[in-house]
């Protein structure tokens, strides 16, 4: 049952420990293993390592496996080490010796790399789609609540007037930078490792440009040793992308928890989205935002986790790398769930009105008073001093007339510009190439 079987039996405990969770996680890579294999055999035929008829038979069998995977009928059997072994086993069972020809010029080391890179491209596409939906929700809320003023804080001390327009819009724009970081992970994933085999290439005249084109990779990892060194690095870069998204969401979640506290009282969630207490009958807690914060804080530890797992590994393949799948694959799902729930909760927030009328925000407009004097020709430092002394002497009279504020940053959310920026960033992925690839390799 092992690709490397030479007649001996593997110790059951060793088998269990070395396979670990890998068989389960590999299921997520199955589709990509088939796509990579179709590209590989197409290339093998072009360099005469397969006959035309052989290629057709293998391609058809691989397409059948792909359909089984999509229909949920693909399983990695007990005793089979991983997805790569299972696919080869099915081919050998259905096509006999022909199935055994598929692995020329390839190793599971470049195979798992290519699987992961294809998988990450798809996952990043899903994430960017989800992030865009959340981004649109945040901008819709920003637009809807642009006139609702809230205190801005520095040092958590009341500072200057802000607005819910600015607050929602800030997290929307933050997501654009996170997508830029995901784009960098995408570019690193978008380089073909196939042909590097075990990490030292092959003596066959493999046409690596051909598999690069078939799999719609932008480029390849030219150096075969570096291609293998990319294992773990690709995952780490994806993790950095996730960590950036997570840092946006965890900060936003923290703000919501604060703003929902009675001491702030800026917003509420509908009762159905809150949870209660077993002892305090009045409680309506924002657990959803607390767990969002916690999930996102955990995700931010991921790059460090992967760094430590790769720390001091020399060049070349090591089984250590397998374990990184246990970190990065579930984290991708965790991230997606967080984005979905964040969007759902954000859409359902109720924003309070007349927040800044509370006397505790009396000094919120002190800079406005200074600016008014500046407009009258008083030098800024003198105006600052005058207002400062008035405050000290209790002579400061807050003017809630925010006409100036509305002409300045608060009234100017630049929603269209922010939307354009997101569009520009997302158009750089060229996700349409992924569908082209599947269409070419699998057909429809
Ligand atoms: N499950 C392995 C991994 O994720 C696949 C590659 C196995 N290669 C090997 N030389 N044992 O790394």
Quick tags:
Fumarase C, Chain B, domain 1, two-stranded parallel sheet, two-stranded antiparallel sheet, binds arginine, mainly alpha, 444 residues, Fumarase C, Chain A, domain 2
Quick gist of this model?
The chain is mainly alpha-helical and 444 residues long.
Intertermini distance: 33 Å
Q: What multimeric state do the chains show?
A: single chain
SSE pattern, N- to C-terminal: HHHHHHEEHEHEHHEHHHEHHHHH
CATH class of the largest domain: Mainly Alpha
- Number of helical stretches of at least 4 residues: 18
Count of the domains: 3
Largest sheet: 2 strands, antiparallel
Q: Which class best fits the helix and strand makeup?
A: mainly alpha
Percent range of helical residues: 55-70%
Average of per-residue pLDDT values? 95
């Amino acid at each position: 049952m092992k690709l490397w079987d030479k007649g001996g039996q593997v110790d059951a405990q060793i088998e269990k420990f070395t396979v670990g969770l890998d068989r389960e996680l590999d299921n997520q890579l199955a589709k990509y293993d088939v796509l990579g294999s179709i590209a590989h055999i197409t290339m093998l035929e072009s360099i005469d390592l397969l006959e035309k008829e052989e290629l057709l038979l293998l391609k058809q069998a691989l397409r059948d496996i792909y359909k089984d995977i999509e229909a949920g009928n693909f399983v990695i059997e007990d005793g089979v080490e991983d997805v790569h072994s299972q696919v080869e086993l099915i081919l050998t069972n259905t096509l006999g010796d022909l199935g055994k020809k598929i692995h020329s010029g390839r190793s599971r080391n470049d195979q798992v790399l290519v699987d992961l890179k294809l998988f990450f491209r798809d996952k990043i596409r899903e994430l960017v789609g989800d992030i865009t939906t959340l981004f649109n929700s945040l901008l819709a809320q920003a637009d809807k609540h642009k006139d609702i003023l809230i205190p801005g804080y520095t040092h958590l001390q009341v500072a200057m007037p802000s607005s819910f327009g600015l607050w929602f819009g800030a997290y929307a724009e933050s997501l654009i930078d996170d997508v830029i970081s995901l784009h960098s992970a995408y570019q690193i994933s978008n380089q073909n490792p196939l042909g590097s085999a075990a990490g030292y290439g092959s003596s066959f005249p493999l046409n690596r440009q051909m598999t690069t084109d078939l799999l719609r990779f932008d480029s390849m990892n030219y150096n075969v040793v570096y291609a293998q060194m990319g294992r773990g690095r690709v995952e780490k870069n994806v993790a950095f992308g996730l960590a950036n998204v997570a840092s946006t969401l965890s900060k936003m979640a923290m703000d919501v928890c604060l703003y929902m506290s009675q001491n702030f009282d800026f917003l509420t969630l509908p009762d159905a989205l809150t949870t209660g207490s077993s002892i305090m009958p009045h409680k309506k807690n924002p657990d959803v935002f607390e767990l969002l914060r916690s999930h996102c804080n955990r995700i931010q530890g991921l790059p460090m986790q992967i760094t430590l797992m790769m720390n001091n590994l020399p060049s070349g393949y090591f089984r250590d790398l397998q374990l990184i799948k246990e970190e990065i694959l579930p984290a991708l799902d965790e991230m997606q769930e967080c984005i979905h729930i964040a969007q759902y909760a954000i859409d359902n927030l109720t924003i309070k009105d007349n927040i800044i009328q509370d006397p505790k925000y009396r000094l919120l407009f002190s800079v406005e008073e200074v600016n008014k004097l500046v407009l009258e020709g008083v030098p800024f430092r003198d105006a600052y001093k005058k207002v400062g002394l008035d405050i000290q002497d209790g002579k400061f009279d807050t003017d809630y007339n925010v006409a100036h504020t509305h002409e300045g940053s608060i009234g100017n959310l630049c929603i269209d510009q922010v939307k354009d920026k997101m569009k520009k960033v997302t158009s750089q992925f060229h996700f349409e190439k992924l569908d082209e690839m599947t269409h070419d390799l699998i057909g429809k």
